[in-house]
Design brief:
Blueprint: H1 3-9, E1 17-19, E2 22-27, H2 33-45, E3 48-53, E4 64-66, H3 70-76, E5 88-90, E6 93-98, H4 103-110, E7 114-121, H5 129-138, H6 150-158, E8 176-179, H7 201-209, H8 219-245, H9 259-272, E9 279-283, H10 304-325, E10 332-337, E11 358-364, H11 371-374, E12 384-385, E13 405-406, H12 407-418, H13 423-430, E14 454-456, E15 466-484, E16 489-504, E17 514-521, E18 524-531
Parallel strand pairs: 3-9, 3-10, 7-12, 7-13, 8-9
Antiparallel strand pairs: 1-2, 2-8, 4-6, 5-6, 7-11, 10-11, 14-15, 15-16, 15-17, 17-18
Helix pairs in contact: 2-6, 2-13, 4-10, 7-8, 8-9, 9-10, 12-13
Length: 532
């Protein structure tokens, strides 16, 4: 029997490492050429990707609300739709709001640490949970079947000698860690998908001394020897995981008492401990397959979907707070995904059926969410790529949320703009070239504090309304003054800025002409001319 066939069909599975009764599985060679390229580039890049899987098919229209399409929503799903005034508003985005259960994610959005990518799917989508999940995991076309995952393919090409030669001085840590009971197919490589075993002194000695317990000289014995080697590998990596996990944190964060938060807490501790693993995958433990009773009829803010979204929001909020306390939030970005969305029209069981497109959320401190960075671009809304879904006035039962972006565009963007992979590597992983999206900030994260640090919009101004965008998000008081070209003081006041925008109306009505806006920010004096 070939090694690969034996591994895939064998019922023998190494016991996972447990932290607070939560299984932690690690993959050092994610079963695919793509994931090995990915992880090697990522570890050299110093960036970390955290993926949250929302299994079951998330109803994006009951998570991210198109407020500018409310009449269409009201016609399509009157039995599950909230009152519009219950939707959480978002700074500088009048078209969009979040579910009221997502207050932590609303705060992150308003701080520039959440990005919404609208209408994510792929051509000819599958509505089968299993097939759709495979497509997301493997990055295949809808009409092809791949036996390796998009992450796994990258790792396999970079680390061809695994497991015999690992860990080594160049790569001591796992290439990817899955928190949960099984490794996802996205980590599947051509030969191995490896989990970490519980500690055992004899197995650790085998790794240290490069010895293996004797086995019969048979086909079974050869496979048993190979499995023991993988298990010993697991223990070798387990030691590095335990060392990182036990590094004390100077400041601790309180996490909610649920399984998703517990998984992210482990990831945060491993990152704090200096583990160089570039990829983590965690799983939302509640199903998003809400064909029925998505909400409570007596209170539409309650029910299965609101509960799921609250778990997601609170867990991400705590995780992001933790990263900030350890000073590593700029090195970590996260994304959510579900295998598909739901249909536009609700059913008679207070739920929605399998659909196609849905929003994907990115979270982190290095997202391209600043107003000053997106004005005049193809996607001018701060914190959102794409637009509100194009919904019909009277949706029929089979109509779907239109696709705006292929999910492989997101993968290409992650690989090239976050994990430092080349165009050639990304194309090799995905089998084709895909246009990237402006999800991440390019260049320095600390723009120089000069007159270009601020932007007035629109300019000329009208209705006595002045809007100022800062190149980065700030939390401080600024002193604002307006002068005529002659130098005469027209307006002066102090404003608090929490975010990257300041909007105000001078107490004096400005007549037509040219003026100078002056902003004192810390010790800096910034000036811009504007026209009324």
């Amino acid at each position: 029997m070939k090694r690969r066939k034996f591994i895939q069909t064998s019922a023998l599975v190494a016991a996972p490492l447990l932290f607070n009764k939560i299984p932690v599985l690690a993959s050092s060679q994610l079963e695919s050429t793509n994931l090995q390229t990915l992880a090697n580039a990522a570890s050299n890049c110093g960036k970390i990707l955290v993926i949250i899987q929302m299994s079951g098919g998330n109803d994006g229209l009951n998570m991210v609300f198109p407020r500018d399409k409310w009449s269409e929503l009201s016609n399509a799903r009157p039995n599950i739709l909230l009152n519009e005034n219950e939707v959480l508003p978002l700074n500088n985005n009048i078209t969009t709001g979040l579910h009221p259960a997502m207050t932590e994610l609303q705060e992150l959005y308003n701080l520039g640490e959440l990005m919404i990518v609208q209408g994510v799917s792929y051509p000819n989508p599958s509505y089968s949970h299993f097939r759709a999940t495979d497509i997301w995991f493997t990055a295949s076309q809808s009409n092809e079947t791949l036996d390796t995952g998009w992450i796994g393919r990258a790792l396999d090409s970079i680390y061809p000698d695994f497991p015999e030669a690992y860990p080594n001085s160049n790569m001591r840590d796992p290439l990817a860690i899955q928190i949960g009971s099984t490794l996802p197919f996205s980590l599947q490589g051509p030969n191995i998908n490896m989990g970490y075993s519980a500690p055992d002194p004899n197995q650790l000695l085998n790794v240290i001394n490069e010895t293996i317990d004797p086995a019969p000289n048979t086909d079974y014995g050869l496979e048993l020897t190979f499995l023991r080697l993988m298990k010993d590998q697991s223990n070798a990596y387990k030691e590095t995981i335990q060392t990182a996990y036990n590094v004390p944190q100077e400041q601790t964060t309180e996490y909610p008492d649920d399984k998703l938060a517990a998984q992210l807490k482990i990831v945060a501790r491993l990152i704090n401990g200096g583990l160089q693993t570039p990829i983590y995958i965690v799983n939302h433990h509640k199903s998003f397959d809400t064909h029925e009773n998505q909400i409570m009829e007596s209170d539409k803010k309650l029910g299965r979907q609101p509960e799921n979204l609250a778990i997601l929001s609170k867990a991400i909020g705590a995780f992001q707070t933790d990263l900030k306390k350890m000073g590593k939030s700029h090195l970590v970005t996260g994304m959510t995904f579900s295998e598909f969305g739901r249909r536009i029209k609700s059913n008679d069981s207070l739920g929605t059926d399998h659909g196609s497109s849905a929003p994907v959320l990115f979270f982190g401190s290095s997202l391209n969410t600043g107003v000053a960075n997106v004005i005049g671009t193809e996607h001018p809304v701060s914190g959102m790529i794409g637009s509100s879904p194009d919904l019909p006035q009277n949706a029929t039962v089979n109509q779907q949320v239109p696709m705006q972006f292929d999910f492989k565009q997101l993968y290409a963007t992650i690989m090239k703009d976050w994990l430092c992979m080349t165009d050639e590597q990304s194309t090799s992983v995905l089998g084709s070239s895909f246009q990237t999206l402006p999800i991440f900030r390019n260049g320095s994260f600390n723009p120089p504090i000069d007159n270009n640090f601020i932007l007035l919009f629109p300019n000329p101004i009208s209705n006595n309304q002045i809007n100022v965008a800062f190149k980065k998000f700030i939390n401080t008081e600024v002193k604002v003054s307006i002068h005529a070209l002659s130098g005469k003081l027209i307006y002066s006041n102090t404003h608090t800025v929490l975010g990257d925008t300041l909007s105000f109306s001078p107490s004096t009505i400005l007549s037509k002409g040219v003026y100078i806006l002056q902003i004192r920010y810390h010790t800096y004096v910034l000036e811009k001319k504007f026209l009324v």
